[in-house]
Backbone:
């Protein structure tokens, strides 16, 4: 697409920056040829939806160098129109909080402590336990009727997850034959 | 620290100019600049035009008051002389053109209102005036006229229902964004006619890009109420000021002039100022404008 | 919600009952404020004078657990005074249907009750059918066995005096509530009903909502702008998690999870697909076979074929109740060995926490996925416990918070909104999406070596763009998951949609659920989300839309902001908002209208495209009518007042003290389930939340700002009770029930007033339930007090009404 730029003086968009600067970079009270030296930092703004209640307020998250620097109500969101409650305003402290978990932890039977572990260790260990329990408790038939389920493993949670995560959770749990599948909606 | 190296410092430096320009605008507001104002349809029609994304000012049938126009033209020359000492020769050249009637103030204002910039350019091509200075002169000369037209056109509308990045009245691109520190909403400002309209915070006004991965904010260190929103898609940028001063009391002109270092920063980073001095689209019903507007409308999902 | 948040502005009367919206959904109350500014009357009914009460025009107190008596009384008031929208009731509800002559009601029991099984034979309440299989109707509403006459008889027992004796509501205020609310029976006045957990958390929670719905239908308030039945969801995605089937009885899209009776896909379809002989009934659930087949295709891909019943038998089949309480009872008995927890904290949030915490000790292993340590994940080091005694292995996996990942959440108004990732995950935390992907891949790897019934795992269609191995740095592509949920064509297919034949190419995203098929040519992860992601690029992600422009009816629908299920319909049952010719009942804030020239609907997306009188409006019911009389519920076709499991008074209306259809866990599993009486525990207890904390507190009690705002647990009690007990504001007190006791600070206010119940004076207290032993702000959990007993239909625990005692703690003031 060719965009017409016929304006007065036919000035191109690019041309005017230099123009203005050469005009005003050196106003009366300042010596000529001085050019400002101003340091800058870059940040991003992205939209999100509040993770607390079911109103679904919009927020704008500002981030810089990989860290959240500010969270505020999204003024353009039709429901909250920029306003937030005490919890929404405190979302910043979810993103920036030294109590957040950053490592896999494991607590051995009878232990009084957590141990820090790697994902590489934890995932196969969990899988082994899932298989052991599932295989030991699997019921293929009940009174001659096919049931194909395990009552030995239960799943809880989901209301804090995204839809796509809930969907995979549902798919994953059913594939194992889990029927004790419940979450916050029940309570 | 040299005050030129902060935005606040630049604001101070340029305050005298801003104050004088303000006086000039205020004077313009007291005058009857039009013998006949731009045509204005019924309010309902105006509202519909805004809904359709067509800007309002279409200056057919306008008649200016030539005397007032002339006195404003000369007054503006005086302001420039006082504040732009490095450009004395060029300012004198403009003055001469006016005095020798090689250009007629009401004629160039009318042409500017009609977006017929090339005509004026031809007229002054022989004089030794750089384009930027003359453009500056023309924008401010025309401003009182556009302001009055804007007030007239939007008088009866209680809410500007406008979803686009260009000015709903005269079609120019915004010169500055105001972000309310309290509620966070953004208001765009048109330098050419002083119209203000609300626009989404997280969207590029120039290409309507909403993908946050292609939008960035550049802040001067320690002066974070000033910022530049840059769009990595269309490479345009917008200067913004976050302020707790309400839009109606906010000194847009002063802020626009005082934040010129932000223009330099943006340019250095490779971003382009979408000229506020040109109308990107020749007329509100042009093809390009239609394409721009269509970006804002996505296909509707229908039942079945 | 049938409607949505912004729509509250359109109401003339707003009833807030069972919710404290101003406290718990503060930003939503903005729309209540706007309604009030428009002249709407706000009514709040609550045992306690709350922030919402202070905002309301009319506040009426009533005792916890007596909603049915309260609302049945309003229904009776409407029926007695003929304050009903008769056209609406005739055209759109089952008021005219005749009911089986086996139906009867006597002393709190409906016909067909079996005391041994504590269950009803519901065939006693069936609709009477004519020779063609259609419900028999009496459009004069005079037949003694028509629903309308049965209702008149049933509800006549709830006269104002009786209601006030049961509920403790002041008579003058109650009359005013009746008068004000029923004023919306005229077509151009609309009332909305807003409720939350104050309604659902009772042994008769479902019937509470039934009573609201019946009233709304009689007044003609359902389907209209400013009307509807609106459940205020308490969690950001509890709507979506339910939509995705994270409940034992549901698959995604509200399809029933298979039971033992469903031995084949054919059985399943037969058992679940409702039928109608009425051509005017859309009977939308008639599409059941399309949705289940498409779901199986989404889950098992090429391994879902006609010759293996589309993998139907890969799905587990249930043969009992596996709901939350039952789950913990089973865990307590030692039969559940392993537990996955994704962001849930039952050690605080579950009822009868003492029992549930002990149940956790029986686990062999627990995998907890969360952003903070929760009370549940550290249950093995809770106060008073020796960790050495607990053999449970615990894996605590660090998850991302909402700003560190991308995906969608569904709000209470069914708006599915997209969230973007602002920063990379913190430390080694990963998104739940990555964790679930890694768990599936790890388990699959384990089963590759063989094991029990490996097919459902090995054949699962699972490919989200990050390879078959687990890579710490490769997230599954959330857009691929979202597109799978939306659904697509698996082969070229011509589909009749309405009267148009449309051709779809293999691989094309399905445009709406009307395109889904039952022959395996389409896949769809959750049919109600079909239409949410209609192409292969993010531009077709309709959930991410952010255009703030209202629809032509200007009632705040914002149809291009995000996407709402189903099919972007913002107000459901909206065909009930028009008359038989398609003209809006309330023209000044119309939702949909039929354009006679274009022969199309305008406004919101209608409940089906058919012309106005071609189909009945309630398309999800097999007969197309809203059910005033609902013969499918476990505890009766009409709401009847029963007392909570623990109550200080006898049921004034019948000899049935408690809902006869609830499961009595204290009888089945007495251990850990004691029930208290009014002699030892004379005070009514209830639980609630405060604005500064959220649910079980795992997030908010770890946020310094919020922990500082509300640092301690408190029990709120009235001045009279406090005087009687010599408790002063700020004293440390003990609250005890038959199940446990907690320490709390006393908050003495005039917000709790004693109830006068048929001559007896009863007090009520309330405790905030956010607290536990982990986190920055700690305190005793209110759920140590609550019991294992649930609603007769949903099994939601009865948190909101129990018996307790409150006493000053030895040692006095703190």
Residues:
């Amino acid at each position: 697409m060719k965009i017409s730029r016929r304006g007065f003086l036919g000035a191109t968009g690019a041309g005017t920056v230099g123009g203005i600067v050469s005009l005003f970079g050196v106003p009366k009270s300042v010596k000529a040829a001085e050019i400002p030296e101003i340091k800058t930092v870059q940040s991003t703004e992205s939209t999100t939806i509040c993770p607390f209640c079911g109103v679904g307020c919009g927020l704008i998250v500002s981030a810089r160098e990989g860290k959240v620097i500010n969270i505020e109500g999204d003024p353009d969101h039709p429901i909250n129109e920029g306003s937030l409650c005490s919890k929404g305003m405190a979302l910043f402290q979810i993103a920036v909080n030294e109590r957040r978990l950053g490592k896999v932890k494991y607590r051995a039977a009878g232990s009084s402590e957590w141990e820090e572990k790697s994902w590489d260790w934890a995932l196969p260990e969990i899988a082994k336990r899932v298989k052991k329990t599932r295989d030991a408790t699997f019921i293929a038939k009940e009174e001659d009727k096919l049931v194909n389920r395990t009552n030995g493993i239960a799943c809880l949670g989901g209301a804090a997850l995204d839809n796509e995560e809930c969907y995979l959770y549902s798919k994953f749990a059913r594939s194992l034959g889990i029927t004790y599948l419940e979450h916050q909606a029940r309570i | 620290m040299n005050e030129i190296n902060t935005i606040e410092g630049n604001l101070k430096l340029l305050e005298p100019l801003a104050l004088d320009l303000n006086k000039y605008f205020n004077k313009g507001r007291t005058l009857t600049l039009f013998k006949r104002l731009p045509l204005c349809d019924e309010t309902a029609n105006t509202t519909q035009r805004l809904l359709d994304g067509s800007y309002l000012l279409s200056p057919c049938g306008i008649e200016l008051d030539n005397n007032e126009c002339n006195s404003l033209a000369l007054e503006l020359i005086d302001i420039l002389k006082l504040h732009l000492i490095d450009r004395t020769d060029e300012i004198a050249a403009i003055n001469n053109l006016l005095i020798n009637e090689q250009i007629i103030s009401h004629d160039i204002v009318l042409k500017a209102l009609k977006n017929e910039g090339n005509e004026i350019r031809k007229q002054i091509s022989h004089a030794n005036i750089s384009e930027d200075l003359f453009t500056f002169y023309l924008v401010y000369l025309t401003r009182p006229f556009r302001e009055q037209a804007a007030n007239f056109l939007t008088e009866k509308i209680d809410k500007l229902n406008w979803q686009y990045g260009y000015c709903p009245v005269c079609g120019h691109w915004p010169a500055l964004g105001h972000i309310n520190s309290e509620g966070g909403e953004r208001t765009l400002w048109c330098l050419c006619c002083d119209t203000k309209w609300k626009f989404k915070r997280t969207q590029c006004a120039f290409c309507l890009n909403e993908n946050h991965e292609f939008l960035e904010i550049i802040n001067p260190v320690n002066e974070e109420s000033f910022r530049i929103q840059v769009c990595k898609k269309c490479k345009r940028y917008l200067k913004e000021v976050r302020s707790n001063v309400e839009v109606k009391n906010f000194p847009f002109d002063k802020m626009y002039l005082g934040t010129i270092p932000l223009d330099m920063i943006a340019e250095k980073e490779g971003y382009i100022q979408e000229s506020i001095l040109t109308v990107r689209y020749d007329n509100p019903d042009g093809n390009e404008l239609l394409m721009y507007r269509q970006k804002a409308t996505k296909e509707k999902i229908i039942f079945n | 919600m049938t409607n949505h948040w912004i729509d509250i502005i359109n109401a003339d009367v707003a009833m807030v009952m069972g919710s404290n919206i101003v406290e718990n959904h503060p930003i939503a109350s903005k729309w209540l404020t706007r309604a009030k500014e428009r002249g709407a009357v706000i009514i709040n009914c609550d045992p306690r004078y709350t922030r919402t009460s202070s905002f309301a025009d009319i506040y009426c107190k009533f005792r916890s657990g007596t909603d049915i008596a309260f609302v049945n009384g309003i229904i009776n008031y409407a029926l007695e005074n003929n304050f009903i929208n008769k056209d609406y009731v005739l055209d759109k509800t089952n008021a005219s249907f005749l009911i089986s002559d086996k139906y009867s009601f006597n002393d709190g029991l409906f016909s067909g009750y079996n005391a041994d099984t504590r269950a009803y034979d519901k065939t006693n309440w069936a609709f009477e059918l004519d020779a063609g299989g259609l419900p028999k109707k009496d459009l004069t509403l005079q037949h003694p066995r028509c629903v309308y006459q049965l209702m008149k008889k049933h509800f006549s027992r709830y006269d104002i005096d009786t209601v006030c004796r049961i509920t403790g509501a002041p008579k003058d205020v109650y009359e005013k509530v009746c008068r004000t609310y029923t004023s919306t029976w005229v077509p151009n006045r609309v009332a909305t009903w807003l409720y939350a957990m104050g309604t659902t958390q009772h042994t008769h929670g479902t019937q509470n909502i039934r009573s609201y719905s019946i009233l709304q239908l009689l007044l003609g308030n359902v389907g209209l702008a400013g009307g509807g039945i609106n459940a205020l969801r308490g969690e950001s995605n509890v709507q979506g998690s339910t939509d995705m089937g994270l409940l034992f009885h549901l698959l995604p899209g509200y399809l029933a999870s298979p039971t033992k009776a469903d031995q084949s896909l054919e059985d399943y379809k037969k058992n679940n697909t409702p039928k109608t002989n009425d051509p005017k009934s859309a009977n939308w659930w008639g599409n059941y076979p399309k949705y289940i087949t498409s779901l199986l295709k989404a889950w098992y891909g090429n391994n879902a074929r006609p010759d293996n019943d589309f993998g139907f038998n890969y799905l587990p089949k249930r043969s009992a109740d596996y709901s939350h309480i039952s789950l913990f009872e089973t865990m307590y008995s030692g039969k559940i060995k392993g537990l996955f927890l994704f962001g849930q904290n039952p050690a605080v949030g579950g009822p009868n926490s003492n029992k549930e915490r002990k149940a956790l000790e029986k686990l062999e292993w627990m995998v907890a996925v969360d952003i903070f340590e929760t009370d549940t994940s550290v249950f093995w080091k809770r106060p008073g416990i020796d960790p050495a005694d607990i053999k449970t292995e615990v894996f605590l996996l660090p998850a991302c918070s909402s700003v560190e990942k991308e995906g969608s959440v569904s709000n209470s108004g069914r708006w599915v909104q997209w969230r973007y990732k602002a920063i990379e995950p913190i430390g080694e935390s990963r998104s739940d999406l990555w964790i679930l992907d890694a768990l599936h891949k790890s388990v699959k790897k384990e089963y590759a070596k063989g094991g029990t019934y490996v097919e459902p795992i090995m054949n699962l269609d699972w490919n989200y763009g990050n390879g078959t191995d687990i890579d710490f740095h490769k997230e599954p592509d959330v857009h691929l998951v979202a597109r799978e949920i939306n659904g697509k064509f698996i082969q070229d297919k011509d589909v009749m949609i309405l009267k148009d034949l449309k051709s779809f190419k293999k691989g094309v995203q399905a445009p709406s659920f009307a395109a889904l098929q039952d022959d395996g040519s389409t896949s769809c992860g959750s049919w109600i989300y079909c239409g949410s992601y209609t192409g292969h690029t993010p531009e077709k992600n309709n959930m991410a839309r952010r255009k703030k422009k209202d629809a032509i009816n200007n009632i705040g629908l914002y149809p291009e902001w995000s996407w709402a299920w189903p099919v972007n319909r913002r107000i459901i049952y909206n065909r009930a908002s028009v008359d038989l010719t398609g003209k809006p009942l309330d023209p000044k804030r119309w939702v949909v209208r039929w354009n006679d020239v274009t022969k199309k609907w305008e406004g919101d997306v209608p409940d089906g495209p058919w012309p106005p009188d071609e189909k009945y409006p309630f398309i999800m019911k097999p007969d197309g009518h809203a059910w005033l009389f609902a013969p499918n519920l476990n505890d009766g076709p009409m709401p009847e007042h029963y007392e909570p499991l623990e109550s200080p008074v006898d049921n004034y209306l019948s000899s049935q003290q408690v809902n006869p259809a609830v499961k009595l866990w204290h009888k089945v599993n007495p251990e850990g389930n004691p029930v208290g009486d009014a002699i030892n525990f004379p005070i009514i207890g209830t639980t609630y939340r405060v604005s500064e904390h959220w649910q079980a507190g795992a997030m908010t009690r770890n946020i310094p700002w919020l922990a500082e705002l509300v640092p301690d647990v408190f029990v709120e009690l009235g001045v009279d009770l406090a005087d009687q007990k010599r408790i002063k504001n700020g004293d440390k007190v003990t609250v005890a029930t038959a199940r446990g006791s907690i320490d709390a600070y006393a908050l003495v206010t005039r917000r709790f007033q004693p109830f006068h119940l048929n001559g007896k004076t009863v007090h009520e207290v309330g405790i905030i339930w956010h607290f536990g032993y982990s986190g920055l702000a700690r305190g005793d959990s209110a759920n140590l007090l609550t019991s294992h007993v649930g609603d007769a239909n949903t099994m939601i625990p009865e948190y909101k009404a129990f018996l307790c005692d409150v006493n000053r703690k030895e040692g006095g003031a703190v």
Observations:
- Chain B has two domains: 3-154, 176-296.
